[in-house]
Amino acid sequence: MLRKILCATALAAALCLSLPSAALAAGPGTVSGNWRQENGQWYYYDTNGSMLTGWILVNGKYYYLYGDGHCAMNEITPDGYRVDESGAWYEVTRDILGQKFTVPVRFASPEVLGEAWGENSEALAGLGMAVSAAFGGTRKLSVSGDMIEYLSVQGDARYMGLYKDYQENGYRLDLRIRLDQGGAGENRYAEYSYGVFKAMAATVSSTPDLLEEAIYSAWQGQNTYGINRAAPVQVGDCTVTYEAGEGYGKFFIRP
């Protein structure tokens, strides 16, 4: 989390201290406090008149100031965090089957996620426990450094799997189970199958809704995005190709 990163340095620790009330401005877009607008950019000055850089905490919100002092707005900072149009840092999350998944700020390569699958290791562990509880231990979510699999405990049938492909800097998603978006919430099989599918998309893509929609459409036979085997199709922050077989589908997800 950003708070941990900030407090890891002496400068960040100093900025996390309570500042005089006069220094606590409402944020970029106002002229109160120590924010100053210069040549269309916003800068922050401390009570001694010194221009600040890096991450600062103002009125409970984090802002990123570049080396020349101007405030990042509506973009991704150099160290990989989203800031909105006011400059304040925010997270995009998805609540999936009671677990909070943090959506990556950009397409997450296998190396970036690492063996813990980025910031979603706890969410995946919680999802695994929820799956086991929902099906009395007959289904499980198996998570290792290189794969996430949704499978049956009896017979070890694999319903769904997301596998890291380090050579291509992407992933392969295998589907061997029906996905019923409309049935989610109506019965536990549809709900959990689609929930696991959503979690896999949210773990690797900064545009998981588009990725989910495109793969679901292709798997259902509608294929509104025109995903095929011959050429990659752009879907949000990644490209997708599709290889279909009898009873299975393989989706190759690349940057």
From TrEMBL:
The keyword Ubl conjugation does not apply. Keywords: Repeat. Cell wall-binding repeats lie at residues 32-51. This is Cell wall-binding protein. It comes from the Bacteria.
